[in-house]
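Notes, p. 3: input format for complexes.
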Amino acid sequence: MEWKTDALVIRAVDYKESDRLLTLLTPEGKITAGIRGVRKPKAKLSFAAQPFCFAEYTLTQKAERNTVLSAYLYDSFYGIRTDVVKYYAACAVAEICDLLFIDQTDARAVLVAAVECLKGLAMTEQDGVELLVTFAIVALQESGYALDLEGCGVCGSELGGEPYFDLSLGCFTCGNCAQGVRAKKETYEFLRKCSGLTYEEVDFSESGKRALRLVRSYLIEKTEEEYPCLGELIRLL
Ligand SMILES: [Zn+2]
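Output follows (237 residues plus zinc ion):
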């Protein structure tokens, strides 16, 4: 059986003498596929075996193993390699796609959000942290862990100056309900901004880093994975 699919390389591991094993995010979910001979000098398909390669892949399946036969490149997001923050933000996108459970039948929204984020990182001067948080919000939503950013998640009131964040429920809570760990109103407003919701213009100078810390803690809580690239990015900021 041979088929074509759009896919983004979210992981590439060396395998055998000159092959690689790829984890591909496709509109239908994540798949693993081998790609042969790509570590030989002058290998025609070496571009298709690099992390962040976004291409139309032609695959074949034999005994339940997928093999890449050819690929038509859409984008390799070269620009992310010119800046260390952009590079780690891109690695965090791939890491979240890899470690977060994503519906195995419909990953279209996550794929679109990942490609949009990488494009923004590679080709624009937009804030990399904001782009990454925007992607993470979509990925969390699509995997069933949507953040609740509509006021206090317990009593429904508007959030005042000293909110809390409940890691198990994925919501902020007000000072009266005080459920979870202490958080900042600015982080809440920043997350609303990245979600495309209305938000208060507050001082966002520390909010990107705080929002990433909150997202990482929440990801760890939900998936029991460590997210080292995201951790490294937070250290860099
Ligand atoms: Zn409350």
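The pocket of zinc ion is lined by residues 152, 154-155, 157, 173-174, 176-177 (CB under 6 Å).
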